[in-house]
Amino acid sequence: MEDLLKAIILGVVEGLTEFLPISSTGHLILATEWLNFPESISGLFEIFIQLGAVFAVLWYYRAELLRQARTVHTDPAVRRLWLWVIIACVPAGVIGVLFRDELKAALFNPTVVAVSLIVGGVIFIWYERRPQPENPLTDPSLLTWRQAALIGVAQLAALVPGVSRSGATILGGMSVGLSRTAAASFSFLLALPVLGGASAIELLTSLDQLTPDVLVMLLAGTIVSAIFAFLAVSWLLRYISRNSFTPFGWYRIILGVVVLIWAATSGSGGQIG
Questions:
Q1: How far is CA 247 from the centre of its chain?
Q2: Which of 94, 157, 212, 273 is the most exposed place for a label (fewest CB within 10 A)?
Q3: Per residue in 214-259, pLDDT tens?
Q4: pTM score of the predicted model
Q5: DSSP assignment of 163-203, as one string?
Q6: Do the beta carbons of residue 189 and residue 170 sit within 8 Å?
């Protein structure tokens, strides 16, 4: 029962942080360490419950996705949009699959998370202080394949825990000319193949861990994650329609400093597990 409660808490953390530009992976690494979540399944759990975020996006955009499915054969804009999604997924997908184990072994620790949070926070604050384009694109389907590829390259940074997949792709989208809202929407669509694929790979490579107790924890965490991810998506799109990402930058910096102090004083700066 204690581990199930921890799984539910982690589901809340994943749901709230997956689409905010503050790094869900970084928060989950820190939360699993602080909660003393079972190390034997923490890696599987952290990746698998991202399916909750996928379900949240599918539900939030359900009407638009159904429209696109009905018109994909007749609407070139829909075909372009999903071609750009595929192109943007390729860099992180290829590198993530090829170097999955090496990345987890080398980078998944509190110190890396802390530094990534701080650096990402500084970049967000710096970017928001730059002059913003007067007429940004409000429709991601109007991107070019080169712009989509650049967003995909930006997403590579998110392989480092603490960077934030949504943060990297939103900044990448804004950098190539998308508005805040359009960049966030494109980032959410990118989550469907990226997070869905990562969850499927993690599940298939961890079948030996799927005991009934583990399945219950995975299901609970995923359901809770889906609920809170839906709330986070709804709130973020309303928020950024009128506000900048600067507060997220300051949050990242403050949290990163706190984690660095904690890691230094507790001796947890190295590899988790």
A1: 18
A2: 212
A3: 899 999 999 999 999 999 999 999 999 999 999 999 999 999 999 9
A4: 0.89
A5: S-HHHHHHHHHHHTTB-HHHHHHHHHHHHHHHHHHHHHHHH
A6: no
